[in-house]
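Quarterly update from the structural biology core.
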Amino acid sequence: MADQSGSQGLQQTRTSKSTSVPRDPIIDCIISRALTIQNPALPRSHVEPLQLVSYTQNQSYHFHTDWFTNPSLASPSHGGNRISSFFAYVSVDPETTGGGTNFPVLNAPHGEEWCGIVDCDAEWEDGVTFRPVEGNAIFWMDMVEERGVMVGDERTLHAGLPVTSGGKVGMNIWTREGRLGKEFGGEDWVEEGE
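Predicted structure, tokenized:
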């Protein structure tokens, strides 16, 4: 596994398991629906192969950003940097505790109506933690413009908190600034005429 800098090796920052999902009509439908939120004008050639990630008891993903700090991972052949992220909770065991997605820099919304979606019992200093609720999804933009240049948004720092019981399966849908190269899954995602 590679860490945020691109270093290969056994990393302890992520203990969950993940796999890319091959393209089929169901995946095409999921991509179309996600792009209506992420950017309807964006060609599918800018969408990375979808990734399923499974977390069981004691598994987590330490704080990270989805945009890359290592320029070689955001090169034109990689499709540039990630511009948006969509994380959907595909399956959550009924007995699951823990396992939320925490954004430590963001402020949690206030009001009882949010408590089914975010952890209202968390300390306010801890940012906002989205509860793992099957069928729910979190969307965010990874890049912001600073002085005419797109840069990674530090506010998107997040973590998959440890699952203390049960388990969850999530789906990552990432978009890139440009077309993905064939060696990074781009060939499978290019439509006729693009």
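Confidence is low (pLDDT under 50) at residues 188-194.
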